[in-house]
Design goal:
134 residues, two-stranded antiparallel ribbon, single chain, Ribosomal Protein L22, Chain A, elongated
Length: 134
Amino acid sequence: MGVRKHNAALERKEARKQMAFAKLNNCPTSPRKMRLVADMIRGQRVEKALFLLQYSNKEAAGRMSKLLKSAINNWEQKNESTFSPEENLIVDQVFVDSGRMLKRIQPAPQGRAHRIRKRSNHVTIVLGNQSLEA
């Protein structure tokens, strides 16, 4: 491995030490509904994001809150310290991708049938440290 590649790899490794993530697969909510909740917390401080999710009346907010707590726990394990509000942790990135789709048939009048698509999604939350100059 060349010196330049080695140095770049070390920089990426150091940057990843400051991040933690959690992933939820096959969540039985449509991606469109989950993206509304994801947009609500993206870029927020972790304490504010938990507060927003706790008092949101959307059903997807409960699942997102549980996933955010899991990401915080992953960060604590990675850094061998407990989470405190002075840490300047933010919700850096939130990805909501479409998951598998269950296809069902709904009977319709005159012998026809309508297809019902029960959607699911995959959610990934990435936590990072907030820079001091921002």
